[in-house]
Design brief:
Strand order of the largest sheet: 2-1-3
Shape: flat
Low-confidence stretches: none
Number of domains: 1
């Protein structure tokens, strides 16, 4: 029993957290004031189904998934999401 406890203790130190980030184009399906944009880009750690449910469902918003990437770490304590690796690629490709 002591060997199993020690093994689990040692394995716990090697665990790495990661999360997935999604970039969406969110379209408002409800007619609102004229000064509001009909769509905007949103970054979230919620998957498409959860994001849709959290924002009122398919009758209120429509989603188009633009990009997704994996970030190391966690999103606790209101930490910012890691930057998109696609942004780095476009900067390297520019002359």
């Amino acid at each position: 029993m002591k060997k199993i406890t020690l093994l689990l203790f040692l394995i716990s130190f090697s665990a790495q957290a990661e999360y997935r980030v999604y970039q969406y184009v969110v379209k408002n399906l409800v007619k609102t004031a004229n000064d509001q944009a009909p769509s905007h880009i949103q970054i979230s750690s919620l998957d498409p189904q959860a994001f849709m449910a959290y924002n009122g469902g398919s009758r209120l918003v429509a989603l188009d998934l633009l990009r997704t990437w994996v970030c190391p770490g966690h999103t606790g304590n209101k930490q910012a999401y890691c930057p998109s690796p696609y942004a780095k690629l476009t900067k390297e490709m520019l002359p």
